[in-house]
Amino acid sequence: MSGKDNRKHVNLLADLRDKLNSAMRRKDYPLAEETCQAILALDARDKSLNIMACLYHKDLGEIYLKLLEYEKAVDHLNIARAGLIEYRATKKLKFPDDWLNELKAIDRLIQRIESTHFR
Predict the structure, then answer these.
(1) Which one-letter DSSP state was computed for residue 47?
(2) Residue 79 and residue 62 in contact, taking contact as beta carbons nearer than 8 Å
């Protein structure tokens, strides 16, 4: 990939992150979902951006929960959980225990959805 393409992708990622933050602040969950999907597609096209896709899957899980799409929410939260575990196992982290709280939060959310909506 050329430097020009990489700069274009970096700028696109920054724009998408701004769009996602704005959509979440406005509680525009359909736009937030679309934006997360665009970020994940960008990650699939350009791994050099080092996007932590697991965090966007967590966002998607929370978005689908707001949209009352519980199966999609659990699916994306499970993907996020697996991604965080893999990231923690394969990357050198300055504070490896930081991810444990994130994993606990994801586990609690999955458990809450399953106990409330999948009886």
Answers:
(1) G
(2) no
pTM across the whole model: 0.89
pLDDT tens for each residue of 105-115: 999 999 999 99
Instruction: Tell whether 14 and 42 lie within a shared domain.
Output: yes
Q: For the chain, what is the domain count?
A: 2
Q: Last residue of some domain: 35, 51, 67?
A: 51
For residue 19, the enclosing domain spans: 1-51
86-113 b/e with 16+ CB inside 10 Å = b? eebeeeeeeeeeebeebeeebeebbeeb
Cα–Cα distance for residue pair 10/119, rounded to 1 Å: 44
What CA–CA distances, in Å, run from 39 to 13, 48, 55, 73?
A: 7, 13, 11, 17
Each residue's pLDDT tens digit, 17-45: 999 999 999 999 999 999 999 999 999 99
Report how far residue 63's alpha carbon sits from residue 56's, in angstroms, rounded to the nearest whole number: 10
